[in-house]
Structure formats: C-alpha cells, structure tokens
Design brief:
Elements (H helix, E strand, L loop, with lengths): L2 H15 L7 E9 L6 H14 L7 E7 L2 E4 L4 E4 L16 E3 L3 E8 L3
Parallel strand pairs: 1-2
Antiparallel strand pairs: 1-6, 3-4, 3-5
Helix pairs in contact: 1-2
Length: 114
C-alpha cells in the first residue's frame, strides 16, 4: 500500500509548514492527477489507518480531488482533455505533452477559526 507513506508525507509537510498552527488544521484537500496512480478511496483508507496509529490527526478531514489529464496539441496550439487514455487531439494529431494529470499536491488547508 503506497498510499500510507503518501498520506504520512502530506501530514509531515503540513506540520513542517504550519508549526505554530498545525493543531488548528481541520481540513486538507489534495489534488491528484489521473496519471498519478492515486485512488481517493485508498488515500482515505490510508488516512483512517494513520489516525488509528496517530489519533492527533483525527480532527482533520481529508479530501481528494481528481484532476483530468490535459495534453497540448502542437498542431492546434491548444490544450485538450485526454479521454480513455487517447492522447489524440480532436484534429487527429497525437500528443505526448502532458499539461495536467501527473501532479499530487496539497491544494487547500482549512484552519479552525477561533
């Protein structure tokens, strides 16, 4: 299960970034491209397993937003969404230039308002 180290790294990153405010974090949103091989349900399961070992994370709500694969067509000079893993623009030109879809990032952090 490669999701557990990913979730642990996300929380460690947040602890390092927000040392003074980490205890006030109540929500975290992660954006994952379809090519990142991340399954939201497996990330949620890994997070639940981590909470079991680290109860201090129990107050945090974790959500995963999947991002579509976007490629760039050099013929049309425009971006297009890759559907069914067909990296072919509507003009018929194949493309290997991925603009979006490989990323895994923390996109939003919500803090408890005091």
């Amino acid at each position: 299960m490669h999701e557990l180290p990913i979730v642990r790294e996300i929380l460690t990153t947040l602890e390092d970034k927000y040392t003074d405010r980490f205890e006030q974090i109540v929500g975290v949103e992660i954006e994952a491209g379809l090519l990142a091989s991340i399954q939201p349900i497996l990330i949620q399961n890994a997070f639940e397993a981590l909470i079991y070992d680290e109860p201090r994370y129990a107050k945090i709500e974790l959500s995963v937003k999947l991002l579509p694969i976007i490629a760039f067509c050099e013929n049309c000079n425009k971006n297009f969404e890759v559907l069914r893993h067909r990296f072919v623009c509507s003009c018929g030109t194949p493309s290997s230039t991925v603009v979006q879809g490989e990323e895994l990032r923390i996109s939003k952090v919500d803090f408890l308002v005091v």
